[in-house]
Amino acid sequence: MLQQLAYEVVGTGPVLVSVHGTSSTPAQTWGPALGQLAKSHTLVLPYLPGSGSSPLPQGPIHPVVLAEQIADVVSRAGYTRFAIAGASTGAPIAIKVASLFPDRVSHLISVCGYSSARPSLRLRLELWASLLDAGPQAVGRLLLTLGMNDRVAAMMPPEMLDEMVLAIGSNLQPGTPDQLAFAQTVDVEAELDSITTPTLVITGLRDNFIDPAHSAHIAGRIPGAELLQFDGGHGVTSDCTNAVVEAINNFIGPSRPVKESKLADS
Q1: 245, pLDDT greater than 90
Q2: Which residues of 156-190 are buried (b: 16+ CB within 10 A; e: fewer)?
Q3: Which tens digit of pLDDT belongs to each residue from 158-217?
Q4: CA torsion through residues 114, 116, 122, 125, sign
């Protein structure tokens, strides 16, 4: 039986499923972009296995099963057709959903994502995993170094950076080890060439975590995909919130959410 993921629904307008990253939540990954997107979209926000109250599977997290769980979330929320956006590790998940459910996915968006972890990304993920037992200070320093670009960091006083280090390192999700294992091994390379869904690829040129080359590769492989590069880091949804939201709004365009008929009638 398919394990059910926890989820939230906010906003009104075209349905947009927003998939978060490793050891994160929708609010943590998407930041202020969530509030802005909710003004023009019905946001369906699944929690990945091991985040929030979503259960972990008995074995490793499997990309096909996870894609089916996300499609199930949308059905339980009462919708059939939807756009999907994945940020960071959420991007290969979104790609998997689009490849398995082409009749349901209207638009595909990758934000600072990847289709398979190149050696440098895999090493960063392995380093993160190796520091889990070293305490919140060590983990927080790593994640802040990778997630925040130097321009933003330079604007903050040292005491604020220290507070952020502790906050980030102390706020890991329960399923972090399992999610890190998934992030290192997920591979949707084989799906890229066959994606027919309109695709937008967004990256931050100052991303220290997932090199922008990953996004360029996705855009080059998915037929007709559009690549947008913003002057931000891995947290481009916070660094360049207005630009990212505008790009997503323009890409999806106006439409109305489509309810499951069997649910709408109940």
Answers
A1: yes
A2: eeeeeeeebbeebbeebbbbbebbbbbbbebebee
A3: 899 899 999 999 999 999 999 999 999 999 999 999 999 999 999 999 999 999 999 999
A4: positive
Where does residue 223 rank: exposed (0-12), middle (13-18), buried (19+ CB within 10 A)?
exposed
Single pTM value for the model: 0.94
Give me the residue label for tokens 């998915």.
222
Contacts with 201 (C-beta within 8 Å, 6 or more apart), sequence order: 109, 110, 113, 215, 216, 218, 219, 222, 225, 226, 227, 228
Element counts in the chain: helices (H) and strands (E): 14, 7
Rg (the chain; Cα; Å): 17
Q: Which two tokens stand for residue 68?
A: 């089916």
Q: What local confidence, expressed as pLDDT, does residue 263 receive?
A: 35
Catalogue the E-assigned strands of the chain.
7-11, 15-19, 42-46, 82-87, 105-111, 199-204, 226-230
